[in-house]
Amino acid sequence: MKPRLVCAGLLLSAAGCFSQATKFEVASIRPNPSGDRHSDYSVSDGPDGAKLTARNVSLLSLIQRAYGVKRYQIEGPDWLKEAAFDITAAMPADASENQVNPALRALLVERFQLAFHRETKELPIYALVPAKGTPKIQAAADPNGPSGTWQGARQATGKNESMEHFAEVLSRLVDRPVMNMTGLPGTYDFKMDYARDDSPAAADSANASLFTALQEQLGLKLEAKKGPVEILVIDRVQKAPTEN
Q1: pLDDT, tens digit, for every residue of 3-39?
Q2: Per-residue model confidence as pLDDT tens digits over 154-178
Q3: Residues 6+ positions from 196 with CB-CB distance below 8 Å
Q4: Beta-carbon contacts of residue 57 (< 8 Å; ≥ 6 apart)
Q5: For 64-87, what is the mean pLDDT?
Q6: Rg of the Cα atoms in the chain
Q7: CA angle 84-87-88, nearest 5°?
Q8: Beta strands 49-58 and 40-46: pairing type?
């Protein structure tokens, strides 16, 4: 019989078990009781390996970053957004920056005893759909070239971009998930001038809001609906981490 591998701290999680390659070699976690609204989070990748530095970052935000979800996808105690920490952590010398998130997941499990399960719930979403008339986006000039949407405070530029991925990009800019319901296949090139509500450009009347820009410049719009959203339901988490 093969030995069973048990992943401590995870309940029906897709995170999986953690190997030494996905763990921090050294990690210091200290509570930050300052109450300051400002926080910093950075990851650097150097010859000595990747490093994570966080100051005054809430446990809720750490879970978001570790699992690549947004706040509305985490269901847990209210204090998650209040409990803040300073973290300094280093990966082994041969580890790269893309291994930091798996290491952060391992850290949350080991030091905060985090356990959760996933559920799908009907929540408010936006549907990305064509506006009246023909969408104003152009078929990609180079379907084999680099793809994606590059964002600034005032402009988004899509190259060889699919509507499926563009919906994911928009999900990061609004307060709920965006699902692609355009029915548009293939990839597209486009440029959109807009102002995010939380950017200095928002006060500039020359820049339309995201919702207006989508409709007027791209011939697309966001419709408020309800749809299935995957949620991380916290089953267990400690307010104070185990000692360094």
Answers
A1: 333 343 444 343 445 555 579 999 999 999 998 889 9
A2: 889 999 999 999 999 999 888 899 9
A3: 153, 173, 202, 210
A4: 39, 40, 41, 84, 85, 86, 87
A5: 94
A6: 21
A7: 170
A8: antiparallel
Residues with Cβ within 8 Å of 79's Cβ and at least 6 positions away in sequence, in order, are 239
| Dist CA 244 CA 99 (whole Å) | 21
Q: Which two tokens stand for residue 100?
A: 């930091």
Please measure the distance between the N-terminal and C-terminal CA atoms of the chain and give it in whole angstroms.
38
How does pLDDT run across 82-100, given as a tens digit for each residue?
A: 999 999 999 988 888 889 9
